[in-house]
Specification:
Blueprint: H1 3-25, E1 30-31, H2 32-39, H3 43-53, E2 59-61, E3 65-68, H4 76-87
Antiparallel strand pairs: 1-3, 2-3
Length: 101
């Protein structure tokens, strides 16, 4: 895989995850099947997103429908910093401070 292909792959991953996080934080319930159609990736890829890449968020899986747990407010700053570190997208986020989060 060339450098450009690798960069493009990371860009698509970062965009997909940021869209998913934005929608979850907006209170949406996300359907796995709808996300498959929207992003053109497999169910397995999206399950990996929810179960591994977004593990630091308190996400409930109800038969392929994902939403944030409403029981307690999420800690956006520490979860966001952790997400940035674990996904490797720190290079595309210029400043990582609590005010930004």
């Amino acid at each position: 895989m060339s450098v450009n292909e690798q960069d493009s792959r990371y860009d698509r991953l970062a965009i997909r995850l940021s869209v998913i996080i934005s929608r979850l934080l907006a209170g949406e319930t996300l359907s796995l099947k709808s996300l498959v159609d929207e992003f053109g990736v497999s169910e397995r890829t999206l399950q990996r997103d929810f179960n591994q890449r977004l593990i630091h968020l308190d996400i409930l899986d109800e038969n392929g429908r994902y939403r944030l747990n409403d029981c307690h407010p999420p800690d956006h700053s520490s979860g966001a910093f952790s997400f940035i570190r674990t996904t490797g997208i720190a290079r595309i986020i210029p400043v990582q401070d609590r005010q930004l989060m």
